[in-house]
């Protein structure tokens, strides 16, 4: 998969291939770290950015955390499952993800930047990394099972259609459809 962007239109010399490599490496590291800590209790993994395109942060959820929240307030059962901000932890590979955040936030400070093009390419880069890891069965090989994988944006006005498309690219048809139903009915 190639990241499509035109640096002349975007007014940047930002190296998205380097970013993609860093995100993949950091994602592998955090997932392996959390697999050792939480094992088969892990049920979900996500990368999250923000509308300002200044962050890339990992989130991991566990079955026990999900069940606890769903029992406390069944009204938000699906929210607890599909909203990474509600998940168990964002800890792990901190140095790597801090470096990634610095890399992208420094570029956002570029006065000549075509922000929308940069933002869209950043988001697509994150989705491509997760898609590659899922296609390679990385998550399944680490845990011995498939899990919910998402790319999310905090406090966003991103069209639901984009979020749905990403959810479907990163998951089985059944999970993708459940995620779509959640977003449409939220």
Automatic annotation (TrEMBL):
InterPro entries: DUF4303. This is DUF4303 domain-containing protein. It comes from the Bacteria. It comes from Maribacter stanieri.
